[in-house]
Specification:
The protein is an alpha/beta fold. The protein is built from 10 helices and 6 strands; from the N terminus they run βαααααβααβαβαββα. The protein has helices at 20-33, 40-46, 52-63, 65-86, 93-99, 112-121, 125-128, 146-155, 169-177, 209-215; strands spanning 7-10, 104-108, 132-134, 162-166, 181-185, 200-203. It has a 6-stranded parallel β-sheet with strand order 3-2-1-4-5-6, sandwiched between helices. It is globular, with a radius of gyration of 17 Å.
Length: 221
């Protein structure tokens, strides 16, 4: 028997705020400038859903530690500029949040500083204030389960009654590793087939989210 959902855990980038398109374009531009040409598809596969530490490690392995430190600095600067130029919530997200009555929190690979900026810029920060968790608080980022388990533990909820709303392959893998159900949002940069898998329902319109949560429907196997 599947237990009713008691907590909805939201990823941030690409689920709450429409920032993944911005991030992908920034990485493509920045990597090319530093001598590592990447397509958007390659950036989505390698970088989307990963913590800053994991991205730094990938750049360092390819270009060296000094270049990775420069990459971190330039990414933050270019991403912040792009966010200020016109970041919006994911389409349909504010209305979906209004219709969700269960407790919610945020668990993101991004830093608290980054989330204060993106969620603040889109007017969403106050909705989750005091219930925002970052990969910087745990030893391992997604696809390890650490962040989601930390969020559930802090919220006082059993992982088995949590559902994670994610838009990345590392994110849905982390939810599965944590023993949580997941809803994979395929309306962003990640293809539906990279989200599909056990205990996961894939959807493409954020307006569907309240109904999916209320139904507790999760595909098994």
């Amino acid at each position: 028997m599947i237990k009713p959902i008691e907590l909805v855990i939201f990823d941030c980038d690409g689920v709450l705020v429409d920032s993944e398109v911005i991030a992908v374009r920034v990485v493509v531009r920045l990597a090319a400038d530093m001598g590592w040409p990447l397509t958007e598809a390659e950036v989505i596969e390698k970088f989307v859903g990963r913590s800053e530490a994991a991205c730094h490690a990938m750049v360092a392995e390819r270009l060296g530690e000094e270049a990775a430190t420069l990459y971190d600095k330039r990414f933050r600067e270019l991403h912040a500029e792009a966010v200020d130029a016109g970041l919006t919530p994911v389409a349909g997200l504010p209305e979906a949040l209004d219709a969700i009555t269960l407790p919610t929190c945020v668990a993101s690979s991004g830093t608290h500083e980054k989330m204060r900026h993106t969620l603040g810029r889109t007017g969403l920060h106050d909705r989750f204030a005091g219930r925002i968790f970052s990969a910087t608080e745990v030893g391992r980022g997604k696809p390890a389960p650490d962040l989601f388990l930390h969020a559930a533990r802090t919220m006082g909820v059993d992982p088995a009654v949590c559902v994670v709303v994610e838009d990345s392959n590392p994110g849905v893998r982390a939810a599965r590793a944590a023993g949580m159900r997941s809803l994979g949002y395929a309306g962003g940069v990640t293809a539906a087939e990279r989200l599909a898998g056990p205990d996961t329902v894939v959807f493409e319109d954020m307006r569907e989210l309240p109904g999916l949560i209320a139904a507790g429907a999760v595909r098994r196997g």
